């Protein structure tokens, strides 16, 4: 990486995806556990993919309002470096999950306007990181991964006390501008590096990482 930007590529579903992401020098890869998602993976597939990830590529499991039964199975079967909570988990639930599994937790918070920022701040004491994502439309099937951006001016120049990652509608073409406008040190993408829903495109992954780190 030429600069200090860390990149997360989310929604990997094949060993080819993992190899491509590892080859770009991205910092994180994400596996989605959400039945309605075109990126959903089974525990068995996720385990196989996670075992292919080289040292230095952090493996993140994305879950949505998961119960302890699922999280027990997930953490027992899949070697992970972080949990990403992408539902309506409260700060108290974040604290319980951190304590129970001993893994760093990144809480996703949807942003549509300035009234969403206090919600984000409510996780500073319990989450290890915040994923600052676009709020999904009210009728969306997915709580994330919709390829929609929010108005980056809402968070321009903000300083927060814990690490955070920018997400939502990022692409190879806009990621450099998003970083410049928000001051993000970490970026996350899924739809923007796909040729079809759930199908990652190696050339777009490479272009995204280049755009973020140039
Ligand atoms: O990707 C999904 O299908 C998904 C399903 C359920 C919850 C979250 C989901 N994705 C979140 C992400 O992949 C990212 O963390 C982020 O929201 C960026 O998505 P995108 O706008 O597609 O780049």
TrEMBL record:
Pathway(s) where this gene product acts: Amino-acid biosynthesis; L-tryptophan biosynthesis; L-tryptophan from chorismate: step 3/5
Isomerase is among the record's keywords: yes
Residues in N-(5'phosphoribosyl) anthranilate isomerase (PRAI) domain copies: 7-209
Catalytic activities: N-(5-phospho-beta-D-ribosyl)anthranilate = 1-(2-carboxyphenylamino)-1-deoxy-D-ribulose 5-phosphate
A Pfam family matched in the record: PRAI
Keyword set, alphabetical order: Amino-acid biosynthesis, Aromatic amino acid biosynthesis, Isomerase, Tryptophan biosynthesis
Family designation: Belongs to the TrpF family.
Protein name as annotated: N-(5'-phosphoribosyl)anthranilate isomerase
Organism: Roseobacter fucihabitans
């Amino acid at each position: 990486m030429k600069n200090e930007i860390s990149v997360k590529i989310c929604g990997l579903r094949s060993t080819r995806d993992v190899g491509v992401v590892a080859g770009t020098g991205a910092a994180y890869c994400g596996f989605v556990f959400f039945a309605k998602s075109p990126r959903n993976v089974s525990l068995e597939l996720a385990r196989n993919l996670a075992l292919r990830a080289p040292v230095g590529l952090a493996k993140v499991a994305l879950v949505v309002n998961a119960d302890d039964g699922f999280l027990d199975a997930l953490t027992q079967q899949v070697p992970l470096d972080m949990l990403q909570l992408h539902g309506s988990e409260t700060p108290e639930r974040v604290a319980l999950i951190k304590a129970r599994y001993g893994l760093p937790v990144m809480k996703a918070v949807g942003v549509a306007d300035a009234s969403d920022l206090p919600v984000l701040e409510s996780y500073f004491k319990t989450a290890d990181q915040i994923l600052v994502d676009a709020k999904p439309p009210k009728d969306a099937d997915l709580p994330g991964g919709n390829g929609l951006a929010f108005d980056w001016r809402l968070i321009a120049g903000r300083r927060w006390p814990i690490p955070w990652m920018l997400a939502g509608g990022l692409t190879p073409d806009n990621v450099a501008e998003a970083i410049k406008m928000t001051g993000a040190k970490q970026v996350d993408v899924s739809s923007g590096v796909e040729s079809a829903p759930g199908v990652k495109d190696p050339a777009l992954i490479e272009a995204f990482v280049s755009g973020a780190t140039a």
